[in-house]
Amino acid sequence: MEDEGVVKKFCYMNRKAPYGTIYALESLEVVLIAAAFDQDISLVFADDGVYQLTNNQDTDGIGMKNFSKTYTALGDYDIKKIYVEKESLEERGLTADDLQALKYEDEDDDWAEKDSLFVVGREELSKIIDEQDVVLSF
Question: pTM (2 decimals)?
Answer without folding.
Answer: 0.90
